[in-house]
Amino acid sequence: MNSVSPVQRAKMVNAFDPASVSGLSDSTKRSVQRRTSLLGPAYRLFYNEPVEVKRGTGVLLYDSDGNEYLDAYNNVVSVGHCHPRVVDAVGEQMRTLCTHTRYIQDSILDFAEDLLGTFGGRIEHVMFTCTGSEANDLAFRIAKHRTGKSGIIITDEAYHGNSDLTASFSPSLGRYSRLGAWVRRVPAPDPYRVPIDDMGEWMAEQVSAQIRDLERRGEGLAGFIADSLFSSDGIFAHPTTLLAPVIDVVHEAGGLFIADEVQSGFGRTGEAIWGYQRHGIAPDIVTMGKPMGNGFPVAAVAMTSDAVEGFGRDVRYFNTFGGNTVAIAAAQAVLDVVRDERLQENAHRVGTMIRDGFAALATRHELIGDVRGAGLYVGVEMVEDRETKKPDAAAAAAIVNGLRARRVLISATGPAGNVLKIRPPLVFSDAHVDRLLSETEAVMASL
Amino acid sequence: MNSVSPVQRAKMVNAFDPASVSGLSDSTKRSVQRRTSLLGPAYRLFYNEPVEVKRGTGVLLYDSDGNEYLDAYNNVVSVGHCHPRVVDAVGEQMRTLCTHTRYIQDSILDFAEDLLGTFGGRIEHVMFTCTGSEANDLAFRIAKHRTGKSGIIITDEAYHGNSDLTASFSPSLGRYSRLGAWVRRVPAPDPYRVPIDDMGEWMAEQVSAQIRDLERRGEGLAGFIADSLFSSDGIFAHPTTLLAPVIDVVHEAGGLFIADEVQSGFGRTGEAIWGYQRHGIAPDIVTMGKPMGNGFPVAAVAMTSDAVEGFGRDVRYFNTFGGNTVAIAAAQAVLDVVRDERLQENAHRVGTMIRDGFAALATRHELIGDVRGAGLYVGVEMVEDRETKKPDAAAAAAIVNGLRARRVLISATGPAGNVLKIRPPLVFSDAHVDRLLSETEAVMASL
Description:
Number of helices of chain A: 13
Helix content of chain A: 25-40%
CATH topology of the largest domain in chain A: Aspartate Aminotransferase, domain 2
CATH architecture of the largest domain in chain A: 3-Layer(aba) Sandwich
Oligomer: homodimer
Distance between the termini of chain A: 36 Å
Number of domains of chain A: 2
Order of helices and strands of chain A: HHEEEHHEHEHEHEHEEEHHHEEHEEEH
Strand content of chain A: 5-15%
Strand order of the largest sheet of chain A: 4-10-9-8-7-5-6
Largest interface: A-B, 103 and 103 residues
Largest sheet of chain A: 7 strands, mixed
Radius of gyration of chain A: 22 Å
């Protein structure tokens, strides 16, 4: 025990600190106290003043008093809160049959075929789980089985899941969450702070050095895993020449390249359906989750036949709810909507508007050190000084909480917590961009 | 590579072997081939002739030709396939809001309060995951964090999940799925084969010996985990004096007792809402899953405040879909239906009828060596000879597949695969019992 508060120990950007209830309304206070009492100490709320949500539609959320919030944060409800096609698909399938994958059903096969068509390259099979954590856990189990090795290489502030295995390679959970002895980290490819001409070559060298260390310790390399947006590292969407040299050194060492598409998949980046495709690489394993069912728990691991052959022979895999009939109905509806409503294209167009808007804000506000991202995953880095680039987490927190007070929801990320994280549902419109930008300008003017 | 088929290597009772497609209909063959091609080698179907399911209601399933199957197997759809209250609750919440736990919502707190009221004892908090595997994975992470130790004790053929961590303590996945070095096994409490007067004392001695070994190796004891029905060990519901002596030695060694209620929870045993309550013990952690949302992916870990205090302070836990608004709506509807329709009482009454019926069958069929279980979790053990009690897996498989041909669905379990596993939805009625028993008698007469 010590006097450091839980929120400070278990590091989390934009977490509400239950010790700070004094300024809150009575009903919020009561809810916070009930949560602590019922759900225990491991749960966190967002914002200095937590938000109550009661209903949602599109990119709008409402509390029980009917106050409207612009949701510029939630990437799970990628096709919009309560999209009628997803609601109907889930409802219809719930009324018909909700069961597992050990009976013959066409819908899971039709969806698998549809999904597999989006990868290209060498990806041949897909296996269903319920969460992105389960997908990354399974992916690394498969990689360990395929290679007979145990080592994994990640970026410095990576997040890949909440299972025992994936938490062991998720340093962004903070220093009290122990990393595995078989985990090696490389610096995130941060072109704002580490301006290197050939960042791909540089990153491949970093990865090579860690591979040699893993081999020297007898662990060897099972795999390299990255989210191509490096979202918890601070959102680095460029350069896109980065991962090709990395996959080469990983393959030379006999390891598998795992593309974690839990955040960057399903059109989020605007430029491709999968984030890794922006880098022109062909991974061995692709994992996906969050937006896959628009909130219905469904996730998946897709892989080459070579990667899973031995695992399938020796171990088998069954996930009771994973890929059940309703999960598949939700996932099919989401994939259909992403295509039919051209949401990848919208993400590209509207995401560019957001970045342009923040770039314009940056001409008036020295606090903004960098604006970056791809599609509807935007990072805006706050610094105390543009020369030293010293991170300004307090400014980021003030903007996040200032926007929350004006009923616009975003968050922050990065090792220093100073990067605004803006990743709304993909149905964000021009008018929503205007509202986001004008509210941000108002908050920044008041700092 | 070798010539042993995948199904034989990755041991699974009642798995369809894709090498045996010759006798199947063209459409089944095509589905099997599509599955192998799209989902890869790790998936398994049930039965020698896999079953197609298209829709379900209550305890009945239908294929696309309209053939009706009596479902005496599926424990996930515990309140019956497509129960209207669950369907409506999920539909209504899907239309309103589907979002995560970092906003203030009353429904999760109301449900947590309701659920926590069912445990009694020292259980104070509940945390939500999506699957039973995630629940057991989190439970053991919490136990390791609380104790600072790494060892776990399980029964010989236990199954606790499909994550890297939980698969490492799930020997029923077969010999090619590696157990952790920090895992120790004790024999299952099998009163049919190991008739010991005080089985609780005997089991506590077995556990003590393994604790000493874990301590001698420097692992130490983090926890003991068991499903109180010992379902994958062969279904041992009695004696119920078993676990009290075990929890005492676990606590003496500083370990936590984890009650895995994924199979035995929510009234399944007929005698209590939770299986461990039949043993009169107060576990430190309770995990639950399968029937919790009647197929909607929702699961949970409930625990004492003491168990989770340090974990919550140091690590935090967030599960994107775990306990989201729709998961909570599904779980609340299920808990309400279990109570309102008195399904625990029904499980007790109807389960007794099934066991009595099989006991009567046993007077005419020497193959039946033992009939056991609690509530609607029934085990019927097939033996070649009642004196030697030699397991007869072939007879069990013949009955499972014979019933499938007569459109009654059950399966088999146990280390030798010779124990019929009968665990229908809890809405099973007297007429369904008659149908199950008369079809079983017909199959046995034809053996």
